[in-house]
Input
Amino acid sequence: MPLVQPGFSILSDAFAADPYRHFARLRERAPVHHEPAIDSYFLSRHQDVRRVLTDHTAFTTKTLQARAEPVMRGPVLAQMTGAEHTAKRGIVVRGLTGETLREQMRGVRSLAAELLAPLLARGRMDLVGDFGKPFAVQVTMDVLGLDRKDWRRVAAWHAGVAEFITSLTLTPERRRHCLDRAEQLEAYLVPVVERRRRAPGPDLISKLCAAEFDGTALSVREVIALIINVLAAATEPADKTLALLVRQLVDHPGQLAAVRRDPALLPAAIAETLRHSPPVQLVPRRAEEAAVFSGTTVPAGATVFCMIGAANRDPEVFAAPDAFDLHRADLGTARSFTAAAQHLAFGAGLHQCVGAAFARAQIETVAAMLLPLLDRVRYAPGFRYRETGRYTRGPVSLPLVFTPVRAPLRALLGADQCPEP
Output
């Protein structure tokens, strides 16, 4: 299989600056791309990525033992199989769906209103730095039952965990930094878990503390690993997807106008954002046996990276795949937030993202509040859009200017209303 171009590397700064410009050539010329520096294989075609994500016997999550477990402080859901996976995933899913989710969305609206009020009044905000990042962390802390006043410390610790998991290469210094952050997060969580065991509340940590597997309560270590798992799963996609959604709608004013005229189009706009610009770009697996993709053999034991961004723009699956079009007929909005989704932004199969329903409801709730208020929205003068990240990817910033909102905020946000997840 010929190279994309001489010297091409996914590890290069040029690739990191704009992966999307390389995806078509990867799919056409090197759908199985080998990176010798990390001895890993990168798959870019939709059919190959879906095959890896859905065949959890041939392609396992054993890579996470080294990539995630050290900072998660124990095995994560994606590493589990069989009865253990079913039981523990079920505990988390029940804490993020159904009536619990509907109650959580009332808290989401309240927190969003509190954070947005001063930003809307001044008629400008960086949607990423001023709102998105603090909001995503604080919402997840509310769900878990952590004290929101600690959000800056939790965010800093979580950033170290995320860097460890999502870095393709780490210097010894950065590795030590990330492990230190993970240890600090664990030290913060241990007394919280011990208090919830003695005095449980309605929060997710209390539910994890009360849960049993095979007749035995989860250990403190197991609970903490699941807490950090939820922190990552619920924070990372929502933080980036909201900014990516607003960016696409600002860049496509006709589609922004359509969503404002018909709010029922909002789920389609979110689903198309996830397809077009997925916040999670890479998903790793280990090949348990030799496998052939597009005439190239991936050896047994090799690490395989599924390139979600490339697969989601495969013309074999999506017409005009580089175009953002919330009206596209080949997406299937109704199933785009389920295991049957045509896009792969939440993964697929057994280990589909555990926070998918929560992320969808959170983004939809906030976007439904925010978009009607951004009158004459545009980018701040001199702004140049830039994204960052190979593994997870999102805007560095998104400075917006709009007509200041001077009416009472509660009336504008309709705080007593909450869309059905």
User: Anything to note?
Assistant: The radius of gyration is 21 Å.
